[in-house]
Amino acid sequence: MFNIEEELKKLPGKPGVYIMRDSKDSIIYIGKAISLKNRVRQYFQSSRNKSPKIISMVQHIDHFEYIITDSELEALVLECNLIKEHRPKYNTMLKDDKTYPYIRVTVNEAYPRVLFSRQLKKDKSKYFGPYTSVNAVKDIMELLRKLYKIRTCNRNLPRDIGKERPCLYYEMGQCDAPCQGYITQEDYKKNIDQVIDFLNGNYTPVVKMLEEKMQEASEKLEFERAAELRDLLGSVKVIANKQKITNTDQMDRDIIAFARSKDEAVVQTFFIRAGKLIGRDHYHLTGVEGETDGQVMSSFLKQFYAGTPYLPKEIFLSAQPDDEELIAQWLTSRKGHKVHLKVPQKGDKEKLVVLAKKNAQLILDQDIEKIKRQEARTTGALRDLAQYLGLPMIDRIESFDISNTAGFQSVGSMVVYEKGKPKRADYRKFKIRTVIGPDDYASMYEVLTRRFTHGQREREERKEKNLDINLGSFTKYPDLILMDGGKGQVGVALQVLDELNLDIPVCGMVKDDNHRTRGLYYNNKELPIDKSSEVFRLITRIQDETHRFAIEYHRALRQKKQVRSILDDIKGIGPTRRRALMKHFQSLEAIQKAEVEEIMDVPSMNRKAAEEVYRFFHKPADVMENE
């Protein structure tokens, strides 16, 4: 048994990482400390300064463990790796896990190539980026190929020169075919130098060159060539406009600012390379409520830069992070050169941070509006539905439906909505076992009985083991049962609940002639629903989802030939004779009307089997009912 008080006494006063776990041994929080003894003890000491999140986290701690490190820097690195791996519930978490593309120029090769890359390796290549758009990278690479006719093949040059025919890009005029020796290594290198110059943001020579060539082609009446050059010129200008100059110092830097509301935050980043803005992106953080701006910024920096391969020389921030010196030290060790963290206070640098913060606030405002609309469709609709039915609250809804085709086994479906959204992990399918033929009421009786007897049995088992009864697959009961039908289906549900001594409200979804919901049947009354309300839209979504789930399950069983035909119940009729009967008569109705001699005409059928088929469909009604 883990005794927290005793274990706190054993904590060392050394740097390291601590891991908090709950009663199910799940990791709920990971942190680092310069002194494990002092830091971990603080969680269990009474203090008015604890945030609601920390108070809630401490209440769920069942036991903890720790890993000692040689320094606080090592603890920070380990903390970053563990948080990324386990994503604990109470840590401020970066929701987006993005990787950015780079353009790689293999300058270490005799005939370099220009390649797309997701990784930044120490392989003597030159890397440009990161770019926030894959399409932008592809556009740039295509443009470079057309402008400078750089090879894209994997041939080992100059070893393989002349061994194979030139590729299609040579035929298209987009490669100078160094593989054939059509261009010298010196001239090819000049093209590569121009590529690097272009990627560094120097577009003026290219624009001037294209304008001159376009004019020359036009004067020679080579209008098709002039049009090609015009299109290339337009592509260069588009890329040049996207990479606007933000500073003349040619510095690589990232701009990071965030806006926050309650438990959510949006972080906006600008990527500036060689003084040009090459891209921007935004990220979502959760679990920020109760955290200071410094803690939020610190969490973001550690998670973001633990996963990105490129580090700039400067990072401008909207808030000073906690552990600023330690984070700067960590980033410097990763880059191999000094990385500066700065919070600009004036001038153009501050304006960039303010611009990033405005963008973050704009995205956050849009998200808040989206969340409000989502709440109106989900939890808001549930509140309105509960009020409409006179119930204290509704969180979980279970909806049931039956699907069958004449002659095939009926199936039942259970669809679950929690907080107004489908909870697909709790959906359940039922093959009807006790009902022969299409009897929806009897089938529904079986489905509901199985669902709730299973729940009762599982609840008892979990109670005996001292487990949470709400964590079992069937133990969590709904606040409302919705039946895909009116009075009859509701009556079946109430009968099952009464027999099992359960008190759960049951509501029927009454349909019109077009099989659309027109109202609810509740407490022996049909209640109309405003068709423009979110309640109506929610009920309709649940009804459609329940019907879809049942139909798809039934269809899947038919396709897999897992459903049984009623012909399987006839003595002496196996799969071969069943298929032969259906192929010959085309329908069960035709088989039912056939005489013995007609049935004997079916291949593989003899008189004894034919008489069994005839007798099965012509036995007296009382005999049918008693079987």
Structure notes:
With 627 residues, this protein is α+β, with helices and mostly antiparallel strands. It folds into 4 domains: 4-91, 3-Layer(aba) Sandwich (GIY-YIG endonuclease), CATH 3.40.1440.10; 253-374, Ribonuclease H-like superfamily/Ribonuclease H (Nucleotidyltransferase, domain 5); 383-559, Nucleotidyltransferase, domain 5; 566-626, Orthogonal Bundle (DNA polymerase, domain 1), CATH 1.10.150.20. It contains 21 helices and 20 strands. The strands form 4 sheets. Strands 13, 14, 15, 16, 17, 18, 19 and 20 form an 8-stranded mixed sheet that branches. Strand 13 (396-403) and strand 14 (411-418) form a beta hairpin. Helix 14 packs parallel to helix 15.
Cα(first) to Cα(last) distance is 59 Å
Return the domain count.
Answer: 4
On the 0 to 100 scale, the average pLDDT is: 84
Name the CATH superfamily classification of the largest domain.
UvrC, RNAse H endonuclease domain
Helix content: 40-55%
Q: Tally the beta strands.
A: 20
Radius of gyration: 35 Å
- Helix tally? 21
CATH class of the largest domain: Alpha Beta
Shape field: extended
Could you name the ranges where pLDDT drops below 50 across 5 or more consecutive residues?
A: 621-627
Major sheet characteristics: 8 strands, mixed
Strand content: 15-25%
CATH topology category name of the largest domain: Nucleotidyltransferase, domain 5
**Structure classification:** alpha+beta
